Amino acid sequence: MRITVLGAGTMGHGIAQVAAQAGNDVVVRDIKEDILERGVKSIEANLQGGVDRGKVSDEEKAATLDRIATTTDLADAVTDAELVIEAVPEDIDIKQETFEAVEDAAPDGAVLASNTSSLSVTKVASVLDDPSRAVGLHFFNPVHIMELVELVVAEQTDEATVAFAEGFVDDIGREPVTVRDSAGFASSRLGVALGVEAIRMLETGVAGPRAIDRTMELGYNHPMGPIELTDVVGLDVRLDILEYLREELGERFRPPQLLRQKVRAGKLGKKTGEGFYVWEGGERVGASDD
User: Fold this and answer.
1) Model's pTM, two decimal places?
2) Which residues of the chain are in CATH 1.10.1040.10 domains?
3) Annotated binding site for NAD(+), which residues?
């Protein structure tokens, strides 16, 4: 299959990697060459990690990289695509503009997928002349490790598009979970509900971040606690999702003041070196308030 991924950031390069590893020809498009270069280097590093752990052969690594091309030209990227997956910033206007541009340049039969984690796929697709070919494909970070893909069915999505998307997810060795388009879908709605309550517990002094996280890791077998996960996802990303869910679903998703304060201070989590934890070299080294 010929697949185009729009965006070479954390999610985009991960989606490109797993699609190429499954034998698909992939074009990654971003607005700047240096972003594309960083994305390809990240793919190489992920694959090398697989080689080092004995999960990927040197031949598989080379073949995967050979299947990935990059470009800054949108029309060139989608001209013969069978599936286009956007992984652009989580902004409804940007996603709609991207879908409109793709529809103008891509083949009539191409399926257009959004990797949004919470925005309405129905609204994103509403700008299309043919919204029946739009669907949500919500991958999880890190894409090359996480098995789940949330398949979000918009109001306009037809059965053929759903079947195509489910087949694609199966083909790349991931598990599709199909949900109806609603605010936050299943994953983000449940994930932020746990995360926001954990932050409120911090605010009221119930326990420190590590104690809260270990409770969920050891008591509920979560691989990562809700506070640390918020740092990994990004406090700004979590705040945006909460604001959206509050608008759509009500006050139970009201963002805690502590989260707002951290974001205003630029303490966005792992990507800035400090959030609820302190990070060095991508590793958690202590709590922010220690």
Assistant:
1) 0.86
2) 187-284
3) 7-12, 30, 90, 95, 117, 141, 271
